[in-house]
């Protein structure tokens, strides 16, 4: 997968206070980037879809192939309405896709968030892993870092996630580390690269300290 570029977004947390201009700016950045495709690893929304429908539909103007999965906030506020808004984006909750790059097939799979069982949604982990195991080049998407163990089981080259906000406000970093194996950035386990995106949005209050928000352009080499 040498030379492949992926634009990694996470934890947008779009809500009533999110500006239309900021979302348009994000879409413009995606379209101008050198990435072959875009992934969003959960928590796109932070309120009910009916209040932000017009804002969410702006994301459909991303011209590059874009894959997304659910986060815990998406499930809480309504994942079905969200999917209905994002008609031009590909939902990979418990699904798989093939992306062709330089005559090679890259398998991409995703999980619904770990909280999905509380919303009557079954995570089809084995189905996704079995598909990914058949390909030399495979990428797994999940919202929470602790799902990295599934990437190791399926021999994925790359695991992408978010959820932590990088702690958002120091010293809450230490609290996050009690429940998640990774807080932010790049890590390696066996032959798998793990990247934890700190996210663009906020949870609770619109404030970050020692955990700046992030858009990641990942270049494989």
UniProtKB/TrEMBL annotation:
Entry GO MF terms:
hydrolase activity
Q: Which residues form the Calcineurin-like phosphoesterase domain?
A: 5-166
Looking at the record's lineage, which domain of life comes first? Bacteria
Q: What is this protein called?
A: Serine/threonine protein phosphatase
């Amino acid at each position: 997968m040498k030379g492949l570029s992926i634009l990694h977004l996470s934890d947008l947390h779009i809500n009533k206070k999110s500006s239309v201009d900021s979302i348009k700016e994000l879409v413009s950045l995606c379209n101008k980037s050198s990435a072959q495709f875009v992934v969003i690893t959960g928590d796109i929304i932070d309120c009910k879809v009916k209040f932000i429908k017009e804002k969410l539909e702006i994301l459909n103007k991303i011209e590059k192939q874009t894959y997304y999965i659910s986060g815990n906030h998406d499930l809480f506020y309504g994942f079905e309405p969200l999917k209905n808004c994002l008609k031009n984006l590909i939902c990979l909750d418990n699904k798989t896709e093939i992306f062709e790059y330089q005559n090679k097939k890259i398998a991409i799979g995703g999980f619904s968030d770990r909280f999905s069982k509380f919303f009557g949604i079954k995570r089809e982990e084995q189905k996704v892993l079995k598909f990914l195991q058949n390909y030399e080049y495979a990428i797994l998407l999940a919202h929470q870092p602790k799902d990295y163990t599934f990437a190791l089981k399926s021999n994925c080259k790359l695991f992408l996630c978010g959820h932590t906000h990088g702690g958002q406000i120091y010293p809450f970093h230490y609290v996050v580390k009690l429940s998640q194996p990774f807080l932010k950035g790049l890590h390696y386990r066996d032959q798998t690269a793990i990247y934890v995106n700190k996210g663009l949005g906020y949870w609770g209050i619109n404030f970050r300290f020692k955990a700046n928000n992030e858009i990641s352009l990942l270049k494989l080499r």
